[in-house]
Amino acid sequence: MSPMKSFRMSRSLTNPLIALGLLLPVGCAPGKNGGPTDAAAQVKLGNRYSEGNWVAQDDEEAAKWFRKAAIQGNPEGQYHLALCYSSGYGMPKNDALAAEWYQKAANQGHSGAQYRLGLCYDLHEGVPKDLVMAYMWLNLAAASGDLSARNSREAIARRMTDAQIAKAQQMSADWGRN
Known about the structure:
67% of the residues lie in helices and 0% in strands. It has helices spanning 3-19, 39-51, 59-71, 75-87, 95-107, 111-123, 131-143, 147-157, 162-175.
C-alpha cells in the first residue's frame, strides 16, 4: 500500500472518532464503565448529549455526564447539573437541588451560577426568598460582565431599602476574601 493511501485511510478512520469524541486527550482515558474520567471531558460529553452534537440528543445521558463532573468539583459540571435540576431536563425538576449545585459552582466563581443563584433567592426557588442574598449573587455575576445579572440586580434594588443594598454590597465585597 502506498504511503499516501495509508495516510488517507488512517485519516478517514481517525477523524470520525475524534468528531464523535471517542478519542480523548491525554488524561481522559475511559474509566472502568466506559467514557472519560476527566471532569472537563465529562462536561464536553454532557454538552454533546444535551445539544445532540454528533450524538443523539439525550437529556438523561447529558445529566449523567454533568453529574460525574459535578461530583469531582468541576464548576461547569455543577452549573450544568443545576440547570438540569432547575429545568427538569434528564431528571425530575428539583429546585432545592438546583440551588445546591448552583451554590457549589457560584462559590467557585462561576458567573452563570452566581446569576442563577441570585434569581433563585429572588424567586424563592429552592431557597428562602432573600433580596439581600439575591442582590449579592447578582452583583458578583454583574462584576464579571453579565449584563442580565446587572439588569436583574437593578430591578431587585428597586424593591430594597438603602440599608439592604448596603448590606448586600458589603457581602459582595467580603465574598472574595473568605
